[in-house]
Amino acid sequence: MQFEKAQQFIVNKLKEELPKYLTYHNLNHTLEVMRYAEQIAAGENISGDQLTILRTAALLHDTGFLEAYTGHEEVSCSVAKTYLPQFEYSNEQIDEICELIMATKLPQSPQNKLGEILCDADLFYLGTDDYKSKAETLYQELFEAGLIKSREEWLHHQIKFLHSHVYFTEAAQQQLTTKQHSSLALLEKEELSHKSVTGHQDFYFSDVLLIIVGVITAGFSLKGFLMPNKFFDGGITGISLLIHEIYEFNLSYVIVLANLPFIIMGIYSINMRFAVKTFFCIVLLGLCLLYVPYPLITSDKLLVSIFGGFFLGIGIGLTMRAGCAVDGIEVLALYTWRKTSFTISEIILGLNIIIFSIAAFHFGLPTALYSMLTYFTASKTVDYVVEGVEAYTGVTIISGKSEIIKDRLVNELHRGITVYKGERGYLPGKFEVHSDVDIIFTVITRLELRKLKNLVNDIDPNAFVFASTIKEASGGIIKRRHIH
Fold first, then answer.
1. Integer Cα distance of 275 and 124 in angstroms
2. pLDDT one-digit tens code per residue, 119-143
3. Angstrom distance (rounded) from CA 254 to CA 251
4. Residues 249-254: what's their mean pLDDT?
5. Prior bond to 107 cis, omega within 30?
């Protein structure tokens, strides 16, 4: 293993190619991790080839930042496999180095003594007098990348991390643990002094308003159109209506109980915030059905099927815009989609075929056909409310911080991007001032447009962003999921 030659090559590459916004994960950090790894290794009696492998892993562990921020450990392994063979590293040695690099991915998961040493070296600063200054550079980097929004959020993140972190090696524990605990105590004291009276709000007024209006509208559709005429919809709402009509159970209770398993499933398939909002939404719908005296609007079957679906679609769409679901079938479809090769649309279609078949058997084919028309109307209305008229929107972004934006578009929004090489500047009065820039183009759904704009604004408030309508799109990694 020609470590010295590999070190010279990698150090030059990091010095020349690392993005300038990396105030923490820079060349200096890599050199420090190497030095700390050697220091801990001496206390753990590591020498010879094992020490060389450890030093090489420390040298390469953050080279992934050359290409990506999120998932940089995997990229670092690719760098190792690309360049180390030319410095006489065997495949077995490279695999061992990659295992050490992946051990540093948070939460750290070392599998052997060398992995423990590298993990401790990577977070060595937590137990030193330099903790505050190093943490500040990391904050600046994360803030620049848009991954941290405020000092308060960063303070909370630090306290939580220091509470959970424990050094692996005895050498690091003896040297660093006491100072880490002192830093934690200071941070907790700082948090107490800055804590405000108002806490974090999971439910914003606009979300609550959308949920209330959406639930009231959905209830109006169910009691004013569908229930009196024995019409059905798809999804869990359709199942609840079937149970109500066949067994004469109160729909208010049935619709809540039928959705409960899928709300619990949503905690694991999506997140707790979604599950809490959805629970609130379903319970509110049950209360509306139980206590609100909706009038019977019409018994005309065509009007019931069209306008019953229309108002139900508006209600479902508004609750979706608030970040929840008034029908648990979306959660079931998402969970099943992850376990099978079927798409979400195919799963929902299959479930609804069963629902309408049961409706046809018990209440006759005409009722089932009218109910299918109700479902179709509701689906199209949901699309309109959630996405607008167009399903897809093309977005062009011009920014001086294009590297960060590209990384987060691909790794957070999971969208493919196309990059054009261009020039920015040429402003009135400053025509001679211009510079090269990467022009980013991506295709998203209208539902994602607000999220994309917020993401770009967090990184560069001065970025030039414009969107254009796309009437039809296919291929690439575009994947439209019908939710209703």
1. 38
2. 999 999 998 888 888 888 888 888 8
3. 5
4. 91
5. yes
The strand pairing partners of 199, in sequence order, are: none
Pairing, β 430-445 against β 392-398: antiparallel
Domains along the sequence of the chain with CATH: 3-194 (1.10.3210.10), 205-387 (no CATH), 392-470 (3.30.70.120)
Rg (CA), the chain: 28
Residue count of the chain, please give it.
484
Helix (H) or strand (E) holding 396: strand 392-398
Q: What is the predicted pLDDT for the residue at 257?
A: 92
Nearest one of 20, 28, 96 to 57, comparing CA atoms? 96
Residue 234 contacts residue 356 (beta carbons within 8 Å) = yes
| Contact of 315 with 378, CB cutoff 8 Å | no
Question: Is there a contact between 378 and 477 (Cβ–Cβ < 8 Å)?
Answer: no
Euclidean distance between CA atoms 417 and 409, whole angstroms: 8
CA separation, residue 286 to residues 60, 222, 258, 266, 321 (Å): 57, 11, 11, 19, 20
Tell whether the model's pLDDT for residue 376 goes beyond 60. yes
Which residue has tokens 């376990």?
339
Measured in whole angstroms, the distance separating CA 43 from the mean position of its chain's CA atoms is 41
Tokens of 123: 């977070």
Task: For tokens 């977070």, name the residue.
Answer: 123
Paired residues of 436 in beta bridges: 423
Q: Report d(CA 40, CA 175) in Å as an integer.
A: 10
Neighbours of 255 (CB within 10 A): 26
- Phi and psi torsions of 115, nearest 5°: -65, -40
For residue 435, pLDDT beyond 90: no
Distance CA 121, CA 33 (A): 5
Token output for 168: 């692996």
